[in-house]
Amino acid sequence: MESILNIRNVSKIYQSAGRELTVLDQINFTIEAGSTVAITGPSGSGKTTLLGLCAGLDRASQGTVELKGIALEKLNEDERAAVRNQYVGFIFQNFQLLPTLTALENVMVPLELRGAKNIKAQAMELLEKVGLADRSHHYPIQLSGGEQQRVSLARAFSNQPAILFADEPTGNLDAETSEKVIKLLFDLNKDFGTTLVIVTHDLELAARTSRTIKIKGGVIISDENSTYA
Amino acid sequence: MPNHLPKQNISFLWLFKMAWRDSRKNRSRLLLFISSIVLGIAALVAVYSFKDNLQRDIDAQAKELTGADLVLDSRKGVSKAMQKVIDSLGNERSQEKTFASMIYFEQSGGSRLVQMKALEGNYPYYGTIETVPANAASHFQEGRTALVDQTLMLQFNTKVGDSVQIGDLKFKILGSLIKAPGQNGIASSVAPVVYLPLKYLEKTNLIKTGSRINNKFYFRYDDPSGVDEWVKKNEVKLEKEGFDADTVESRKEQTGRSFKDVNRFLALSGFIALLLGCVGVGSAIHVYIQEKLSAIATLRCLGLKSRHAFLIYLIQIFFIGLIAATFGVILGTGIQFLLPLVLKDFLPVEITMQISWSAVGQGLLLGLIISVLFALPSLLSVRKISPLNAIRLSFEKSGSKFDPLTWMVYVLMAAFVVGFTHLQMKTWVQTLAFTISIGIAFLLLIILSKLLMFLVKVLLPKSSSYLWRQGFANLDRPNNQTLMLTVSIGLSTLFISTLFFVQGILMSRVTLSSGSNQPNMVMFDIQKTQKERIDSLTKSFKLPLMNQVPVITMRIEEINGKKASADTNNRRAYRNEIRATYQDSLTAAEKIVDGKWIGKIKPKETVYISLDQRYADQINVGLNDKILFNVQGMMIPTVVGSLREVNWSRMQTNFRVVFPAGVLEEAPQFHVLMTRVPNSELSAKFQGEVVKNFPNVSVVDLDLVLKLLDEILDKIGFVIQFMAGFSMVTGWIVLVSAVLTSKNQRTKESILLRTMGASKKQILAINAIEYFFLGAFAAGAGLILAIGGSWALAKFSFDAAFIPPFLPTMGLFFSVVLIVVITGVLSTRSILNQPPLKILRTEG
């Protein structure tokens, strides 16, 4: 299978109070296109930092991150933005819907940024898929947490990304809603054939992916295929 | 690799759409931010429109201001040669003799000093002498009739047809005078005008030797195009004859020039309000962008480029700025109609208010420039917001790095302030003085507020209650508004208090002069032969003879052997008539500061005179310099023997030039006598007697003058307060918007405190304490600066002592603090009235 994400010797070092703080140390792994991967680890282990580097939200201090064959460390911030818009989708723990945009407009944004045509119909179709077509003109504040995350899912898939990064997608939801959102996430992933990378504490959720990378103290302590994925 | 990077096609239209969408939930807040500049723009548009209208009206009514194509006037007599010139000028000519004299109202028995205008001819040739009945002005020269100022007639309960005594003659009042050409409201209340026919002047016996008469000649030309050229050609000749020339053009320039200063003051007051607004815009946009951080980071995650993110917010600010400027322009255009009402007593022309499109354009442009320019530092930071903020707050502060663009904007901001000030001030020295003063005021306010904060930190007991400690600590919280609020509130307080103090200084000078032991009546033009009889009359009324001095009119002919024509740098010394006296000893208001006082000399001895030291500086003369005086044709050589410090604020006759006794006793002279009249009834009786027995003697009721001065200062004070009001209200709007913009932060903290069990009262107390400190620091710093500034103004400009009035100062301080506290607490109350969970959910 073709690899979509190549992480080679990646380290992230912050300057904190005059001393160096190594958050990630010599990370190496490759993710194949269409696979589902969970990155797990305790709080402060560096998993969100790793997600930020993989998605081109930040630059590695050392090493290379290749996404769809593009070396992200060689790009400036705007070039990385273009890469994200074309190939990457995001799901955030706190949904990160734009509060001044309706549900429909939130879903439309990635498509608009791309300059795509027939945007509204595509966005409505996605909202239908997540069961929120009738709430399309509601603002985030008028939606429940579960509904907001479903809009977030529709937005993440709207530009048909090659890879989707989900940061604790159920972290702010109750168990019942979590289950619904996760099911929807995996169903959509299947439909679109997207590569899915989930950062999570939730071992049950991690177990539903095909591979789990465990991090602790900034290093990978295990990288295993899930038993029942 | 980068060569197969995806392309993005973001249209400009989408950026507009996004700017519109993004502003949806914040429009009212953005409008509140920008309302900071609405009043500043309104003030400037009002002032600019007023200026344009005034200039247009001055241009249109310039002929009515002079009433003739050429006016020649002189305080000297008219030489034969000059009379020949006068006879040869114009196609039509009028003559007027103007002088101060007493008028006695027969019916009411009252009398008052007025400005007599004895007129012959058809003046004014342009405009009219406005009277009731309207035809009185064109007929009063036909008989022994006069036109009397309307307020004077009201004051003495007189009507048209009644009689007045002017000198030895009685005149019938033919009309009440509404307005003479070129006269404004203030001038007529200070010196009410009475017109009488010139042909009767001599018979009034008012003109005696030494009387101060202004001879005016008005000329009308069929073709006035060559008038200005003639004046230019004959400038030296006219000056030599002691004549000033006034043409329509020169009056236009002169009137425009004097109102330029007024307009400059008004525009600067508006500009200060605008500067406050700029501070408000800058800080409001800073908080706005902080709140947008998460949304911007999300958009960046989704692939929005940094420059596009910047453009979205720039578009928002541009349009909100445009709306603010439009509001400002509309408001300003409305306010301009108020300015003529505020200034009506000072205006020489009828103002016809119209919309000034150039003022409207300037207002719009200014509003836009300010909105964008002062928002730019925060807007530029949008480019630096990392997408990482969407998943967590970045470890590295992106804004901390040096950004040349931001610094360029700071330079542009400084250039804007300097450039705009220069447009008002015209000279670079004044521009720099103003901008540096504003800069220093900003800086001092910051330093003072920091100092006060430090002091409270040190002095606030560690054992003080949690509420006090928390309330005070809030001033130091991250993203606090302390600095901005201190500067805006402090600057408003500084501006308002300084105006208040200066007004107080001026008023106290006036009231000091009118103290109970000071004279309150002055009699001028007492002839030598009348001196003894006036003294007896005064004594017969049991009034004291407080100050009796001779006055001699003279001119400087030469200084150290140089005539006016050779001493071109010192023209001022030769131009004006000097009223000097002679005395053998110094008065209580005089002190020798240099040289030796010589009180008496014998014939043929060197005449050592004494000069007021300020006057000596003005005419560039020092000790032992030689001055040749022309005392009505007689040349008297003198030497400057001493310099005096004169207390001009004392209510007595003071002189710039004092001769020793033994020189001028035989020169043509008149006397001045001062007395104190205990009440207005006696004052009226005494004045009546003086006018009846000595018609040429002028009596000035100083109580009346002081009352008028009081009224004038009140009117000026009102104009100043009117303009300062813009700064005050802007300061308050900036305060309200700043409090509202930092509400989010307070909301979270307040709700957290409530969740932990704090009562509503406790949270309100914490907020009230925070705002109390904030208001106290800002108002305190502003007041300290105002007191310092007023002291400096009192000492160096007004030569007066200044002690800040305790109660009003405290009143000012507590009013500002109260407004700040009330505004702050009200903004928190609305949050506390809802359950914590509801707010947490909304805010989360």
Automatic annotation (TrEMBL), chain A:
- InterPro entries noted in UniProt: AAA+_ATPase, ABC_transporter-like_ATP-bd, ABC_transporter-like_CS, MacB-like_ATP-bd, P-loop_NTPase
| Claim: ATP-binding is one of the keywords in the record | yes
A Pfam family found in this protein is: ABC_tran
State the similarity comment. Belongs to the ABC transporter superfamily. Macrolide exporter (TC 3.A.1.122) family.
One example GO MF annotation: transmembrane transporter activity
Q: In this protein, which residues make up the domain named ABC transporter? A: 5-229
Record keyword Translocase present:
yes
* SMART domains xrefs: AAA (SM00382)
A GO cellular component annotation here is:
membrane protein complex
**Protein known as:** ABC transporter ATP-binding protein
Q: Keywords, A to Z?
A: ATP-binding, Nucleotide-binding, Translocase, Transport
* CDD domains listed in its UniProt record: ABC_MJ0796_LolCDE_FtsE
TrEMBL record, chain B:
GO CC, any one term: plasma membrane
Record keywords: Zinc included? no
Record has Nuclease as a keyword: no
**Residues covered by the MacB-like periplasmic core domain:** 31-229
- Give the stretches traversing the membrane: 30-50, 265-289, 310-339, 359-382, 402-420, 432-460, 481-506, 718-742, 763-792
Q: Which UniProt keywords apply?
A: Cell membrane, Membrane, Transmembrane, Transmembrane helix
Question: So which domain of life are we looking at?
Answer: Bacteria
Question: What positions does the domain ABC3 transporter permease C-terminal occupy?
Answer: 270-387, 722-836
Give its localization.
Cell membrane
How is it placed in the membrane, per its record?
A: Multi-pass membrane protein
- Name of this protein: FtsX-like permease family protein
Native organism:
Pedobacter agri
* Highest classification ranks of the organism: Bacteria, Pseudomonadati, Bacteroidota, Sphingobacteriia, Sphingobacteriales
